[in-house]
Amino acid sequence: MLNNLLSGDFPRSRILSVILVAIVVGLTVLPFVVNGVRPLNTAATICIFILLVASYDLVLGYTGIVSFAHGMFYAIGAYGIAISLNALGSGWGAVLIGLVAGLAVSVILALAIGAFALRVQAIYYTMITLAVASAFSVMVIKLSGITGGEDGHGFEVPEVLSPGFRLVEEEVLGAVINGRLITYYLILLTVIALFLVMLRIVNSPFGRVIQALRENQFRAEAIGYRVMFYRTLANCIAAAIATCSGALMALWLHHVGPQTTVSFAIMMNILLMSVIGGMGTLYGAVVGATLFVVAENYLQIGMKQVSSSLEGIPVLENLFHPDRWMLWLGVLFVLSVYFFPTGIVGKLRERRAATNEKAKVAEQVVRTETSSSSSLPAA
By the 8 A CB rule, do 140 and 151 touch? Predict the structure, then answer.
């Protein structure tokens, strides 16, 4: 059952398995364990970015394409929901229309980018995607009549997802079952479902082909695989999933704007999460997104406590001042890349593989010694 669910792609590391189980269980039970707006908002953001980073890993880690346009598809999903709900009212029909429209626009753009830009190699493709993303960002700001410009769009969501909605009046296990909690579990279940779909994709024959293209494009092309077709299809699938993550973020925030969708910082964050977690694993998206979002939300609070405890020691107090949290966040990421060059997931898998190899060698030595001693003549 578990083998089918994970498409045979297990973590392949006990430590990694424990980390992944802890993250999934933590995200599942958090609303009933911790009260407050910030923890729930952090958990929802982790879920959404797990999906977004995993979709980017499908392009970067599995296909070997470095794209700076991936955040654009995320923004299309968010704006599709916002524009539809504003124009058609706060119903599920409007949500569906916005999502379908966003998916259609994203796939068409991904298809166009793949058809024209993927013909060039390496840095040239990256620069083209950067130019497309920049043009889209400017368009979002200029088309203020549709997108809301720099102020963005606020909108009403379906009643069942609104904070004022209550499924039951009494608290359940200390938590209020309101629209906010329903939205959170809708996001969590959607992310889990789409993540499992991506696992199925990368472990299918199609997934093995795009990995072959990443490892040696010329050899795969010589065998007969059409490079453009497979890379473009991978780009379209990743764009569609990124669009879904943007739609989920819009439903969570009830507002979209340039700073939360098309900012270049978002694309850089996606890239950092992918590198820190480990490219070409999908599980790296879970670890990388969780570490990044938690650090981004709670590092400043932790530094404030450290600074308060060091009060009276001028140099250390100033060094750990909460205003310097970005400095320490950068230091943490540099250290993580230095000590985990293949990402946290890659490092853990390498460590497990090395341990298994040593065990096999030791077992082979024991067998050889046993065979040698049994072949000796009796005294």
Answer: no
Q: From CA 192, how far away is CA 94, in angstroms rounded?
A: 24
pLDDT in tens, 205-264: 998 988 888 888 788 878 888 888 888 899 999 999 999 999 999 999 998 988 888 888
HSE-up (13 A, CA, CB side) for residue 351: 15
pLDDT in tens, 88-144: 888 899 999 999 999 999 999 999 888 776 666 667 788 888 889 999 999 998 888
284 backbone dihedrals φ, ψ, rounded to 5°: -60, -30
Contact 247, 81 (CB under 8 A): yes
Write out the two tokens for 198. 């991506």
Structure tokens given for 113? 């980018």
Indicate the length of the chain as a whole number. Answer: 379
- Distance set, CA 23 to CA 20, 272, 289, 343 (Å): 5, 19, 11, 17
- Measured at the CA of 342, the angle between CA 339 and CA 347, to 5 degrees, comes to 70
Q: 37-60 and 283-309 are packed helices; what angle lies between their axes, rounded to 10 degrees?
A: 140
Whose tokens are 């067998």? That residue is 367
CA 96 – CA 246 distance, rounded (Å): 14
Which domains are delineated in the chain? 2-293 (1.10.3470)
